[in-house]
Please model this.
Amino acid sequence: MTEWDIKKLQILRTLRDRGTVTATAEALLMTPSAVSQQLTNLAKQLGVRLLEAQGRRVRLTDAAHLVLRHAEAVFAQLERADAELDGYLRGEAGQLRVAAFSTAVPALVVPAVRQLRTAHPGLDIRVREAEAAEAYELLTAGEVDLALSLAAHAPSVRDPKFSRVPLLADPLDVALPAGHPLAEAPGLRLADLAAEPWIFGGSGPWSEITTAACEAAGFVPEQAHSASGWTAILAMVEAGMGVALVPRMASADRRNGAGVVMRVLSADQPRRHVVAAVRRGAEEGPAVARVLAALRQAAAARETVQQNRRPDPSGIVQQN
Model:
């Protein structure tokens, strides 16, 4: 394959546009002899005559015009590459991969992606659902660029491999079957539910969160049923099979219906803290910074929603 020299092609292009070697040299801040030498070398590389004498001037041969027709397409592609690279350097283009736990995807990641697609359409966000431990494994392995997880299951803030960014303190409410004796009890506390059958995952973060919250309230929850998805958990609550702790971020779009009552815990409201993490130093990159800013904005909007879902005097969460 012929070796193409972009610099020499630019000189030939300028000669076509300026008309003379002297004018070309002035435009490119070169000497006329340097222009002539570069074009002679280009002709040797391509194996064709590019110039022919026309009195005291030179003109481009048909071969030179053929070369330039193809070179124009190359120059146009290089201009597009320059523009895209400039956008990448400003954090407005490129691909960024995000791993997030299940409830964070609709509550935080999707709103952030929507905002970024409007403000920075050249930024391509790829989302991957993953549990906390897996998200950090993916981040460590370089398979994702940003991980959303829970602070209790994230690496220590002293871990030199990661930078953590707090996003949201998500309250945990209690889901009770409608008609439960405590469904409308004033001042409901977690300890009041010590004797209840509980529904939570058999292992993993949510099992640990439920167990830790109950133990902090002074009891060990009796696990009557195991489920990891909120649809299944709330369906079992609605069927009167037990009670469950539910993050408000997971239940924000669910109104109290005939089967389930969501209650705020009055004195010992547990919370889970949502954090984002990147490999240390990556937070200074413009694309990562834009995504983190969009996630903070989504978290702030979520907190506003949570504040508007205040309990009525009985402590039942109401959707405004």
Observations:
- The chain has three domains: 6-89, 94-168+273-308, 171-271.
- The two ends are 68 Å apart (CA to CA).
- The CA atoms of residues 178 and 257 lie 8 Å apart.
